[in-house]
């Protein structure tokens, strides 16, 4: 008898969809196969598709508060004139409610884990604890050339790791998050990396998101961001870079050699006109690519199914080849590769893996089904998600998030709007 038995689903296993039963014991998958199984809790998955949970590998969760707040602006104006100004008004409680809304949206669209870089991170951690989702969290640090600030920032980042790493049965992984090479000096980044090595933790950073940023770094330091990071010993398999759009061949080789993971955020990259990342080349080289939404101010949703479809479409149009990427590879970017990047033992429907699992209902948009893989990658809205299990616990049932009051969260966030809207 398992704690949970998911019965008769069509499951994504080793890149293919096959009928199987899944047994869960505690927070791990204990059985995957064709045998009849029983559970304390039984979930009838007949007629449904079963996926490992989606991993949103780069976001700024509480930016749900700025969804629709600054539109149709270039990145630097958008940041300097609107977003950074509004963020100065954020209180810890605002970040809590913004995060609750973000988690609500992610759970309803099949995301079981996310990686967040922001401020007032204690509140994000509390929201993760209450709602049952899994998360990799970091305090977004920037020294901007100020030595005193550098010290303060590193102290906040380190304290956050010490207070929250491994909290809630290991559902939180706390890591370092220096914002970017254009907001952090090389000296500061070096120090962060040394500290990360000492604490045996990961580092999440924005790199080469815009052409201007690459030019600015080249003007200031005489080299491109990836070369600069390599030179200061920042790059290895404990590093996850977000975006990585403006990279030359040699930089791709460096990322490959150093086993750096890339969090690709196609919707945000299009919306801010940042560019199209070289995902096909990264896949060819064997670089671990995972998918993220970025913050809701530049997306404007946390629906990872949009990133899945767009990743595929963008690479087709960028390369002029409709067979540039396979649907299986893209679905794995959204599941297995995210878990791999952040060194969390999940993202696959396999015995022994963490039980982060999503069930999808066959709705009209999946009809007819020739191959579930193509239905899911190219025809999903996100509303097909019926059940979500994280760390062995059922937290979404028939589309309802069991761990929060949806109306309370949405009305709270709606009421916070006033504070930001007079800028
Ligand atoms: Zn970002």
Q: Give the CATH class of the largest domain.
A: Alpha Beta
The CATH homology group name of the largest domain: Metal-dependent hydrolases
Mean pLDDT: 97
- Give the overall form: globular
- Main beta-sheet annotation: 9 strands, mixed
Topology:
Layout (H helix, E strand, L loop, with lengths): L1 E12 L2 E10 L2 E6 L5 E6 L4 E4 L1 E6 L15 H13 L4 H17 L2 E8 L2 H11 L2 E8 L5 H18 L2 H4 L1 E3 L2 E2 L7 H13 L4 E5 L3 H11 L3 H7 L7 E5 L5 H9 L3 E4 L1 H6 L7 H7 L3 E3 L12 H16 L7 H8 L1 H6 L15 E4 L11 H8 L5 E6 L2 E5 L2 E2 L4 H16 L2
Parallel strand pairs: 1-4, 1-5, 6-7, 7-8, 8-9, 8-10, 11-12, 12-13, 13-14
Antiparallel strand pairs: 1-2, 2-3, 5-15, 15-16, 16-17, 17-18
Helix pairs in contact: 2-3, 2-16, 12-13, 13-15
Bound molecules: zinc ion (ZN).
Verbal overview:
By secondary structure, this protein is an alpha/beta fold. The chain folds into two domains: 2-52 and 351-401, Urease, subunit C, domain 1; 54-341, Metal-dependent hydrolases (TIM Barrel). The chain is 40% helix and 23% strand. The strands form three sheets. Strands 1, 2, 3, 4, 5, 15, 16, 17 and 18 form a nine-stranded mixed sheet that branches. Strand 2 (16-25) and strand 3 form a beta hairpin. The protein starts with a strand and ends with a helix. The model has no long low-confidence stretch (mean pLDDT 97). Zinc ion binds at residues 58, 60, 206, 242, 294.
